[in-house]
Amino acid sequence: MIEILKVQTIGNCDMINITERIEKIIGKSKIKEGLVNIFVRHTTAGVVILEDENGMKKDFCLAFERIAPKNIQYNHNVMQNDDNGHSHIKGSIIGPTVSIPVKDGEMLLGTWQQVFLVDFDTNSREREVVVSVVKG
C-alpha cells in the first residue's frame, strides 16, 4: 500500500512530527508484519527519527546550521540565483528516507523515537511524503 501525505511547512528547519499520520496509514493497510518506508520527494527536506522534545529539536537545527550555515556563499545560489544552497546540503545529509519494521500492526519504534519531516528550505511549502507499507 502506498499513500502520499501532504504536509504544509514553514521552512528554515521546520520539524513536523508525522508519526501519528504514518500509524493511521499502517492501520488502513491492515498489514500486521512488514516494513513501512517513509520518503520525502524534495531535495531541501528530509526524514529523520528523533525524540519529540523541544531542546533536542533546537539542538538538531543548531547543529545543522553549524554544518551548512545559511550565510556563506554556495555555488548553487550563484548559478541558480537562489538562496537555498545550504538547504540542499542539509537535506542530503539526513536523507529522504527512513524504513521502520512493523509488527502486530505497529511500528517498532523505541520509547522516545518519533518520525519527523524536516524542511530546510527558505520558504513555506507543501511537501509530499510517500508512505509505503509492505507485507513481510
Concise synopsis of the structure shown:
The chain is an alpha+beta fold. It has helices spanning 19-29, 54-67, 75-80, 85-94; strands spanning 2-9, 14-17, 34-40, 45-51, 97-103, 106-107, 113-119, 125-135.
Descriptive overview:
The strands form 2 sheets. Strands 1-8-3-5-6 form a 5-stranded antiparallel beta sheet, covered by helices on one side. A 3-stranded antiparallel beta sheet has the order 2-7-4. The protein is an alpha+beta fold and 136 residues long. It is 30% helix and 39% strand. The chain starts with a strand and ends with a strand. Strand 5 and strand 6 form a beta hairpin. 26% of the residues are buried. The mean pLDDT is 98.
Percent of residues in helices comes to 25-40%
Shape: elongated
Query: What is the mean pLDDT?
Result: 98
Strand order of the largest sheet: 1-8-3-5-6
Q: What would you call the quaternary organization?
A: single chain
Task: Classify the beta-strand content into a percent band.
Answer: 35-45%
Number of DSSP helical runs? 4
**Major β-sheet, in short?**
5 strands, antiparallel
Q: Low-confidence stretches at least 5 residues in length (pLDDT < 50)?
A: none
Radius of gyration: 16 Å
Structural class: alpha+beta
N-C termini distance = 13 Å
Order of helices and strands: EEHEEHHHEEEE
Strands, count: 8
Characteristic key phrases:
136 residues; alpha+beta; five-stranded antiparallel β-sheet; three-stranded antiparallel β-sheet; 4 helices; 8 strands; 30% helix
